[in-house]
Amino acid sequence: MSMEKNDMLFSLVKSLSKSEKRQFKLYAGRLGGNSEKNFMTLFTVLDKMDVFDEKTILQKTKIKKQQLSNSKAHLYRQILVSLRLNPIHQNNKTQIREMLDFATILYNKGLHKQSLKLLEKAKSTALANEENNLAYEIVELEKTIESQYITRSLNTRADDLVVQAKDLSNRTVIMSRLSNLSLQLYSLLLKNGYVKTNEDFIKVQQFFADNLPEYNYELLGIKEKLFLYKAYLWYSFITQDFLSCYKYSKKWVDLFLHNPFMKKTNPVFYLKGMNYLLESLYFIQHLSKFDTALNFLESEIEEQQFLFNDNTESLAFIYLYSHKLNLFFLKKVWHFYPNF
User: How many C-beta atoms surround the C-beta of residue 158 within 10 A?
Assistant: First the structure.
């Protein structure tokens, strides 16, 4: 029987922490029936494996070969449900989605006023955290309920929802175009590297100008500004304008420092912003600012000033120690070339 080192279920089980495994066992214990006992046996066998081996699973469980695929899919889903209930994995986005799901259930049961009340709460949370896509989805459900049923809402309710939907739609379109441009520029950098000729520079400059959407900076929200800075950052990297790289990576990081809640809701973006700030300072050889920024990043990691999970923990380690190496080389440059 062939080994499947990259089996999705096996990888998921092996990624679980001790507390997550303990919670899953408690969660699974509330379920009844033979099938649940089978998937718990499957979980235990997988947990003890070092390498995924289908033959061992069939030998140590009562699951038949033709049942294995369904049993694995069932276990995979139940683990994800358990993780979703874990407070560690709860954030504003999951809470908003949960409220939206509950409101939809209430709507389907004909409890329209209760549904609208929960939707209003979900929308307030979404708008406060600039989750515009979710807010737009909520407004659309509100419009559906208001248009189909007499809820005796305020007379201006319909007009308010229409205006709100238009505003959220416009903001979503701008953010989508900015994020698209950012991703395209990043892809361009990976494929072609820095511009090498004046012709390359003109092509990138024209591409950037053609794809940058019109916007009113004063009306941009936090996330729209984030993707705007990202787009300018990648454009600056490609064109080797490292002073501009510093300018826009600094704006990126300042966005999080002025809105600390963003560190919890978008910790990966925060860490990446710090990484690009340090990269920019390394490229322009600014030792004092590099040293200050690196010390700040280290203190942020030690004090866990942002959401810590598997993603952020690995990124924090990579960024911190790669830039400590950069600091070593930067100090050597300043030692031999003090007037650099």
Answer: 13
Tokens of 195: 């511009």
Counting every residue written for the chain, the total comes to: 340
β-strand partners of 53: 3
Measured distance CA(321)–CA(144) in Å, rounded: 52
pLDDT tens-digit profile of 69-113? 888 998 999 999 888 887 777 778 888 999 999 999 999 988 988
Contact status, residue 142 vs residue 116, Cβ threshold 8 Å: yes
Which alpha helices (H) appear in the chain, and where do they start and end? 8-15, 18-29, 34-48, 54-60, 65-85, 92-108, 112-128, 132-148, 157-192, 198-211, 222-238, 242-258, 261-265, 267-283, 287-302, 310-336
Strand partners for 3? 53
| pLDDT score, position 333 | 62
Query: Rounded CA gap, 190 and 168, in Å?
Result: 33
In degrees rounded to 5, what are phi and psi of residue 23?
Answer: -65, -40
Q: What is the pLDDT of residues 122-136, one digit of tens each?
A: 999 999 888 889 999
Alpha carbons 171 and 165: distance in angstroms, whole number: 10
Predicted TM-score (pTM) above 0.85: no
Residue ranges of domains in the chain: 8-89, 92-153, 170-336
| Torsion over CA: 56, 53, 19, 80 (sign) | negative
